[in-house]
Sequence to fold (311 residues):
Amino acid sequence: MKIAFTGKGGSGKSTLAALFVNHLRVTGQRVLAIDADVNVHLASLLGVATTAETALSHPENVRKVRAHLRGTNERVTVEHFVATTPPGPGSNLVTLEATDPILGAHATRLDDATHVLAVGTYEPKDIGAGCYHGHLAILENLLSHLRSEKEDDWVVCDMVAGTDAFANSLHAQFDVIVVVAEPTPESVSVARRYAELAEAAGVADVLAVVGNKVADDADLEYLTRELGREPLTAVRNDAGLRRARQSGEPPRLIDSGPLDQIVKHARGREMSGDRRDALMRTLHLRLARKGWVRSAHGDVTSQLAEVGAEV
Fold:
């Protein structure tokens, strides 16, 4: 199961992602937590640290990870890996096993069943010349080459804020995307826009809106009215979460009901392989038509198993 948490910046998506990871740990699940937010707060919320040297988007690591993912796949070279490059014959797939080489090289171990990966953030060399979308390409590669057949395996991603996931393939890479919404006009507007773009992208059924920082029934009624439907669940405003962070402790919820509800909602919603392949194929063909891609990488449609007349 691959689940992502997103929403307006400041909505509490990182905190909710961390709470969800710890909830899964307590209930005996195997978890890969991924910090894909430019602010890189998920690891600290989980009580561990990550380093720039192990970050997936570090230039040396990008090449190493892509070389591993490529394996002996003759349809692609490391130099011409693009964000939507699919796995093919001979590709290596990432697993949640503790012995997986990608986890071994780049993840921080939280416990025997939980690892934390960080995409990374801006470095001084990126000033005036970098874009976080470029950093996220290696995450797109990892997700498209990740396979797990076990029901108690979870990939939990603290995703970029806002609607940035529609600028790449991330919106198509998860089984469930939780949009965290505060009871404010600004937060609700992001959730609405997310729903509109998800509908256009063919993944509207993947979304679930979760209310956060809800103080009372009036807040819940506001969210329901403005969103046009009741949120899947809602996390009440809890000063204890702030106090925990102020003292350097990982956040904890007294009432785990909202987290249980998210788990219940997610169960059985794994996207079929055929559907995901079709979504990713469409996005790969769209990227392949870009002039800068053709200039830098040539015709990347050859990376697909079969190239139809739509190219």
Q: What stands out?
A: The beta strands are 2-7, 30-35, 108-111, 114-118, 153-158, 176-181, 207-214, 233-236. The mean pLDDT is 92.
